[in-house]
Design a protein that fits this description.
197 residues, alpha+beta
């Protein structure tokens, strides 16, 4: 029981590591589209950016493979403000970060380059650190399931095929034609085949 629990925890931790690696890979190498579209329902994005919904902010969105960029801009008398929010991950967005017009950033590991001009996004998105919990959990679960499938799938298939063919599931020894309690080749205790009489 403890061994199984340790394996499950280890696989889930590996799934989380793969999740972060994929999200960072999307942030590093996914090209963002050139065209922006205006986001109308922007309350969630404004909350993530830390922008008050009382401001007359305009939100624009562009996306790439596993990467979304939200550009939020607003003006107050005499000054302009802007925030970029990045979400990355596959198949669901699982990490996010934000970067302000003046170059300040939060929830990020590395900022590659600051903006060259006002309201121009950085040339490469920063590496996000803040989890989007629902997407993070879903991606971690999917990655863990794939890791389990790659690690144990071939063994499960081989055991199933050997059992269907009347062979020992451990070594493949032919068990047909006899009533064996143990495999004569490897000594594996065989499951009882007796059914109701």
């Amino acid at each position: 029981m403890r061994c199984s629990l340790r394996i499950i925890i280890a696989i889930l931790l590996l799934g989380a590591v793969v999740n972060v690696a994929v999200a960072w890979s999307c942030a590093l190498w996914s090209p963002l589209g050139q065209s922006y579209r205006e986001v109308v329902a922007q309350e969630r994005v404004l909350d993530e950016a830390g922008v008050s919904s009382d401001l007359d902010a305009v939100t624009w969105h562009r996306s790439g493979v596993g990467l979304d960029e939200f550009s939020i801009k607003w003006h107050v008398p005499g000054e302009a403000h802007g925030v970029w929010v990045y979400r990355s991950g596959l198949p669901f967005r699982s990490l996010r970060c934000r970067m302000e017009l003046d170059g300040d950033s939060s929830w990020t590991l590395i900022v590659w380059a600051e903006q060259d001009a006002p309201f121009v996004p950085p040339s490469r998105p920063p590496l996000p650190l803040m989890p989007l919990w629902l997407g993070f959990a879903a991606n971690t679960g999917l990655n863990a399931a794939l890791l389990l499938l790659f690690a144990f799938g071939p063994k499960w298939v081989r055991s199933f095929v050997r059992q269907r063919r009347g062979r020992c599931i451990a070594c493949g020894y032919d068990l047909r034609g006899g009533s064996h309690v143990r495999c004569p080749e490897c000594g594996l205790v065989l499951p009882s085949k007796s059914g109701p009489t």
